[in-house]
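Page 47, continued from p. 46.
Same chain as before, 237 aa.
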Amino acid sequence: MRPSKRAPDELRKVTLERAVARYAEGSCLVKFGDTHVLCTASLEERGPAWLRGTGKGWVTAEYAMLPRATLERTRREVNAGKPSGRTQEIQRLIGRSLRAVVDLTAIGERQIVVDCDVLQADGGTRTAAITGAWVALHDCLTWMKARDMLKGPALKDHVAAISCGIYNGTPVLDLDYAEDSAAETDANFVVTGTGGLVEVQGTAEGRPFSEEELLSLLRLARLGTTKLVDLQKMAVM
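Result:
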């Protein structure tokens, strides 16, 4: 039995609330159970210097966890002088995931920055951030389209992410913290709406996992991301 009493293939309750930040071109408050992430998409008129003259824009992301997003207060990374290795890894993952479904030529030589701030953490913050970031990005691109700022269709597909793991010998979907901290295997999957794999991260804690177990986690991930994409579609209707 899972600590949350969910079935092995059951997601936590997921909600996607749009337009929660007054000044951002796109925003979404995403909740995966007790994990809550505020995603805001901001348009910058200038892209990175290394893309100047190419006609292409850029989509990037920043990730942060508020001090009391966790049980005990964590120090703000700005006071430490630089983001941690974990933070850098996650924000690069979010950026890669979003760029996988964007035509960067269509946005011109501009940059969209998606900020993902964890308000409350209970496992799966990076997967919730990617799922909510797509909604914020969608609304930013819609804002741009309404002002004739796009050279053509910019958003090529949906993208969502989910965690899976092996807990007490059973493959399970969407780990919360209680499962994540005790799982024998923990994996994150980033999947597009058409089923393409953007990124797979898998780690064994204790014994190595088998190819069959990896495939069972992939099947769960496809089930979960299909449901998340359906929620994205309903959110942006």
